[in-house]
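Below is a filled-in request sheet from our internal design queue. Each sheet records the structural input a requester submitted and the sequence that came back. We keep these sheets so that new team members can see what a complete request looks like end to end.

REQUESTER: design group, bay 2
PRIORITY: normal
MODE: inverse folding
CHAIN LENGTH: 280
BACKBONE (tokenized):
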């Protein structure tokens, strides 16, 4: 396994693979890797001749400076983990290696077709502009055959699918299911910041989401939505930012459970956690 840091090196690696007709799997990450990432990486290693994992805490997708500062970083630990999974290359640039000063300071423009007008897009203005900026750059440099993303960030995944269509990238996006702890808690790099007590509180999020599935036969979407918010808010230490049941493709609010997904963001202390549940 090799660790590379510059855009030039990444483009050269990709070019060499293309010349030899080798398929490339790309797993974009922000590091602080856990079993959720491992599931994406294992799949990439199984399905491609070469796997590249990017480890880059992308500053342009953080609308909250404190969140960016507190984001866990440990490249050495991540590298040991990725080596054990059979990764070929880690791409770990600095922000200065990734962006010009202008790219860093201006908002990346993209037509989201409305996908950014709900949920995370409303609470984290500019977040998805930064995501599209970094992922489109990674795609251009790494020229992946397949790229792997987790369904925990469901809105991000929908936006990546749109980006591929709009920007005409010839890459297959592979949607990978949420990986949970045995307790049900969705794996997240942010879980590292939870105390043992907070972890016990946070476990309730997935339990309540799963329980809400039982209500869909007898209650309306609005009722289930309110029920989830009430139940989570009742748990000491948890505060719901939003819970929305939306159509899985358009991400617009829906009044039927057909093809619906419920997406939640919850503060556990000052740690912002997201999760979701498909109803159909
Ligand atoms: O999901 C993430 O970790 C990030 O948003 C991504 C896709 C690596 C882009 O920085």
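RETURNED SEQUENCE:
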């Amino acid at each position: 396994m090799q660790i590379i840091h510059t855009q030039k090196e990444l483009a050269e690696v990709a070019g060499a693979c293309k010349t030899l007709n080798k398929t490339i799997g790309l797993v974009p990450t922000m590091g602080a890797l856990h079993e959720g990432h491992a599931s994406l990486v294992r799949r990439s290693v199984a399905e491609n001749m070469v796997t590249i994992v990017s480890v880059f805490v992308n500053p342009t997708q953080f609308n909250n400076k404190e969140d960016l500062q507190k984001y866990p970083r440990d490249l050495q630990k991540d590298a040991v983990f990725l080596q054990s999974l059979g990764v070929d290359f880690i791409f770990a640039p600095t922000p200065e290696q990734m962006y010009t000063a202008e790219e860093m300071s201006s908002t990346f423009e993209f037509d989201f077709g409305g996908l950014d007008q709900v949920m995370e897009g409303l609470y984290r203005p500019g977040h998805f502009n930064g995501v599209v900026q970094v992922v489109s750059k990674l795609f251009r440099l790494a020229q992946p055959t397949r790229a792997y993303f987790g369904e925990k960030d469901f809105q991000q995944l929908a936006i990546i699918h749109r980006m591929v269509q709009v920007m005409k990238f010839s890459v297959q996006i592979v949607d990978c299911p949420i990986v949970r702890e045995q307790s049900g808690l969705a794996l997240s790099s942010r879980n590292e910041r939870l105390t043992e007590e907070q972890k016990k509180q946070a476990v309730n999020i997935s339990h309540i989401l799963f329980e809400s599935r039982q209500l869909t036969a007898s209650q309306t979407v609005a009722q289930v939505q309110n029920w989830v918010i009430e139940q989570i808010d009742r748990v000491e230490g948890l505060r719901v930012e939003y819970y929305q049941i939306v159509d899985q493709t358009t991400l617009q609010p829906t009044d039927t459970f057909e093809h619906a997904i419920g997406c939640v963001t919850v503060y556990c202390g000052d740690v912002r956690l997201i999760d979701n549940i498909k109803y159909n």
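SHEET NOTES:
- The chain has two domains: 2-176, 189-273.
- Residues 28 and 86 are 16 Å apart (CA to CA).
FILED BY: M.R.
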